[in-house]
């Protein structure tokens, strides 16, 4: 039976933009969080690609990864993920091959199958390209080849990229990527931080069908967990209202800029909206250190994952950093 002590703890950062701060502030805070994570001993720090969302500043993901890598020393840094339908595989391989060449053994490439945006923005990103999600397996295979030593007579070689062997993960919120990750023998990360419904089914499918590969001998599963950890349960519930407001805004098509916490959500959402937000956060861990410790132990007992990758939408910057300090305290049983 896995324990919190032997489970990896990682961070997924969306570079949230506060309603009273600039985008520059968000990008600098992403670095501050990465440096904090490195000191605390988190396993990896990933950035997520989203587009045309005023509350998320990590759209130019590989550029921001370079900034994080340049200002940290040992932390594994990667994408969670690059939304592959938006990009030509060769460009992705060259970008991540460049980062791997500059920062050996520190960069990771998590690949997603969805566009991470709306249909209009998706068309703007894919200008002139007829890319579909059905091409995802082919594009993943292409990227994997670019990171290997070139074969004889290989016509297209990623430079940089060739022979860098950048670790590739597949990400998903449904069963498709779980099945593909199993077939290719790649590590798999489930996006249960926003789409928890199919988590158990996807993990089982991945484990049952996993084929050992040159990348992995046995299945490796990471699951996304939203967190708000504070000194007391009451304070955590209060701080979590910023995250609730953000998801409510997402559902309504409103601004996604992070708002201050409120004493009560009662007059801000309808019963149906409340239920939808609660479904979104079905696996969220909100509470004191002891409450969240018990919650994570329950998740681990149920899903027996190898790694938790945590998100956090706390408005106050210092309290957001403290959230991750609390999580490491939980892992170290302090």
UniProtKB/TrEMBL annotation:
Gene3D superfamilies in alphabetical order: Luciferase-like domain (3.20.20.30)
Sequence ranges assigned to domain Luciferase-like in this UniProt record: 22-298
Pfam families in the cross-refs: Bac_luciferase
CDD domains tied to this protein: Flavin_utilizing_monoxygenases
Gene Ontology MF annotations: oxidoreductase activity, acting on paired donors, with incorporation or reduction of molecular oxygen
A single GO cellular-component term on record: cytosol
PANTHER family attached to this UniProt entry: LUCIFERASE-LIKE MONOOXYGENASE
Family label: To bacterial alkanal monooxygenase alpha and beta chains.
NCBIfam families: oxido_grp_1 (TIGR03558)
Protein name per its UniProtKB record: Luciferase-like monooxygenase
Native source organism of the sequence: Acinetobacter tandoii DSM 14970 = CIP 107469
Biological classification of the source: Bacteria, Pseudomonadati, Pseudomonadota, Gammaproteobacteria, Moraxellales
């Amino acid at each position: 039976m896995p324990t919190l002590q032997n489970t990896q703890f990682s961070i997924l950062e969306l570079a949230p933009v506060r309603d009273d701060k600039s985008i520059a502030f968000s990008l600098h805070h992403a670095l501050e969080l990465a440096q904090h994570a490195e000191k605390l001993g988190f396993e990896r720090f990933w950035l997520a690609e989203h587009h045309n969302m005023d509350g998320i500043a990590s759209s130019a993901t590989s550029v921001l990864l370079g900034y994080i890598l340049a200002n940290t020393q040992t932390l594994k840094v990667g994408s969670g993920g690059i939304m592959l339908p938006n990009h030509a595989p060769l460009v992705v391989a060259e970008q991540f091959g460049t980062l791997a060449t500059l920062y050996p053994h520190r960069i990771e490439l998590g690949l997603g199958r969805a566009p991470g945006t709306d249909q209009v923005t998706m068309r703007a990103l894919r200008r002139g390209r007829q890319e579909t999600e059905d091409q995802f397996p082919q594009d993943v295979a292409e990227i994997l080849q670019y990171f290997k030593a070139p074969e004889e007579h290989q016509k297209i070689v990623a430079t940089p990229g060739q022979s860098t062997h950048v670790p590739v993960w597949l990400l998903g919120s449904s069963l498709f990527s779980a099945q593909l990750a199993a077939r290719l023998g790649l590590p798999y990360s489930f996006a249960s931080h926003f789409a928890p419904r199919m988590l158990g089914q996807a993990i089982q499918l991945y484990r049952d069908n996993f084929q050992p590969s040159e990348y992995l001998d046995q299945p490796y599963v990471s699951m996304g967990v939203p967190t708000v950890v504070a000194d007391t349960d009451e304070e955590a519930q209060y701080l979590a209202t910023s995250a609730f407001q953000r998801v409510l805004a997402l559902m309504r098509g409103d601004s996604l800029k992070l708002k201050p916490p409120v004493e009560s959500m009662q007059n801000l959402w309808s019963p149906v909206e409340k239920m939808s937000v609660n479904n979104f956060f079905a696996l969220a861990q909100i509470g004191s250190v002891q409450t969240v410790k018990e919650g994570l132990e329950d998740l681990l007992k149920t899903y027996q994952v190898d790694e938790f990758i945590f998100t956090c939408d706390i408005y106050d910057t210092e309290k957001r950093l403290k959230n991750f300090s609390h999580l490491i305290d939980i892992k170290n049983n302090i």
